[in-house]
Amino acid sequence: MKHLTILEPLSDAERAKLNAKIVRRHFQAGEELLTQGMELKSAHFVFSGIVQVTRQVQDGRVLNVRKLGPGDSFGDISLLTGMQSLGTFTASTSGLLLELSSDDLKPIIESRPELIESLSHSATKAQQFVAMFDKAAIQPVPFEQHDLLSRIKTFFHLELQ
Known about the structure:
Layout: H1 12-19, E1 23-27, E2 32-34, E3 42-48, E4 51-56, E5 62-68, E6 73-74, H2 76-81, E7 88-91, E8 95-101, H3 102-111, H4 115-138, H5 145-155
Antiparallel strand pairs: 1-8, 2-7, 3-6, 3-8, 4-5, 4-7
């Protein structure tokens, strides 16, 4: 738990309290762990295994967003706000998730309201990433072969013809 970004502002004692409440969940390859749009009030930390993240964008396409592995987390926004899942999370391999409920975090936030700002930072970064991903999916940056050829030649300081 010491290496989880969202929990960095917490004291060792606070982390120990949360660690005692962590729910461990084993998963198998191919298992859908979380569906886009599903409401949840928890964060998940990948202890072992690989999880593929996909997102359905406005035009209906389902795009691969990224892969998560040990040490990665998802659901940070949901832990803090109860928002719906921003993507679908499917196990690529078998592994273990650690789940932390917002109900378990609540007593710590109530006793230390100053934590809300630092905790919201990681959630904001996740929301910004999703917004950029959606924008790029809708309006991909076109690359013409001629433009790319010019960039390669310029990068290697080759004579342009």
